[in-house]
Amino acid sequence: MSHRVAILGPTGYTGLELIESLLRHPSLRIECLGSARDNPPRIDAEFPRLSGRLQAVGVNPQCEKIDHDAIAKRCSLAFLCLPHEAAMTHAPALLKRGVKVVDLSAAYRLLDPAVYAAAYGHEHHDAAGLEHAVYGLTEHARDRVRSARLVANPGCYPTAAATALIPLLRAGLVDRTGIIISAASGVSGAGRDPKPNLHYPEANENFSAYGIGVHRHQPEIEQTLRMLGGSADQGREASALFVPHLLPVTRGILETIYATPAPGVTTEALMSALREAYAGERFVSVRADAPTLRDVQHTNQVHVNARVVHGRAVIIAAIDNLVKGASGQAVQNANLMLGCAEWEGLG
Ligand SMILES: NC(=O)c1ccc[n+]([C@@H]2O[C@H](COP(=O)([O-])OP(=O)(O)OC[C@H]3O[C@@H](n4cnc5c(N)ncnc54)[C@H](OP(=O)(O)O)[C@@H]3O)[C@@H](O)[C@H]2O)c1
């Protein structure tokens, strides 16, 4: 059975990645490419690599001005590849008209609107949406995602960190406090809009830390570890210090996570917990060696490895920020919401 879907914000990086995935999808068909521009472009003029490929599968490459009523008449689900504030406007309008929503922005990820306002620098204006949004870290939220009308697709850095840490926290193998996440992302993580530090001469052959301890993903990581990493131990909630870096590559995230192992915990115990948690999972690979960016680029995979060295647990996780960290996981979630097989479009 075919489901017709809309992509709002198709002219950005996550929008393009989503189009690529849906062109391969046997059951989801792109019905509407929604733009806020006064003169919506043809998507193959924005991204010439799409030339001829949408028409070949019967999809109109012309973007259209976003119209909620028109989308509701033609689509059962919409992907929002938009800035956070724009997502907060379009999500309730679509939900009210019966269209399911997978939101790739951060608009619905943080449970507490005050935490959202502090992290994102503006007030949240859809508290009702926050109440029923489901945080779509797919491997850990399948049942809730299946019945959700609004899915908050997780952030890229939190997807890698949480996938690596949740099984270890649940099994009590590492201390819930004092976790340090040192992470590096390719430049596409910041979106298509040019910014001075992303300018080629600034980013190329350079490496820099940014947002140290104040990055917007810091509260999302901690919330996710608290929500899905098992209950607090003797009143101690999970806490982590997150330090991101800008890596001069186009795509991919690699995180090195340091934690204190519980007494007597060995490398084999960490690896067994990860293997057990992800046995049978298509999109998580527990690796005997440390993963690299190249292993995961252009895939919907999380690769993870863990070991105990010098009395510390050292966990390495790698993902493609635009696929498992955004559009790939969004397709995984949409598949569940629409009753398709979870891996369709993600081969
Ligand atoms: N990049 C990543 O790795 C990544 C990973 C996870 C989540 N995300 C999140 O996903 C969302 C999209 O990210 P991106 O990297 O694709 O961003 P992007 O490349 O900057 O694209 C943003 C898209 O939103 C559209 N847009 C901008 N302002 C709008 C408005 N007021 N109303 C309607 N449309 C508007 C843009 O259209 P125009 O071309 O017409 O301006 C463009 O299509 C963001 O919320 C981001 O935080 C990104």
Based on Cα principal axes, name the global outline.
globular
The CATH architecture assignment of the largest domain turns out to be 3-Layer(aba) Sandwich
Strand percentage, roughly?
Answer: 15-25%
- Ligand species: NADP nicotinamide-adenine-dinucleotide phosphate
pLDDT averaged residue by residue: 97
Number of domains: 2
Q: Any idea what the radius of gyration is?
A: 20 Å
Q: How is the main sheet built?
A: 7 strands, parallel
Estimated structural class? alpha/beta
Topology as a string of helices (H) and strands (E): EHEHEHEHEHHEHEHEHEHEEHEHEEH
> What is the terminal-to-terminal distance?
19 Å
The count of helical stretches stands at 13
At the fourth CATH level, what is the homologous superfamily of the largest domain? NAD(P)-binding Rossmann-like Domain
Under CATH, the topology of the largest domain can be stated as: Rossmann fold
Strand order in the sheet with the most strands: 3-2-1-4-5-7-6
How many individual β-strands? 14
**Assigned CATH class of the largest domain:** Alpha Beta
Overall helicity = 25-40%
- Unreliable parts: none
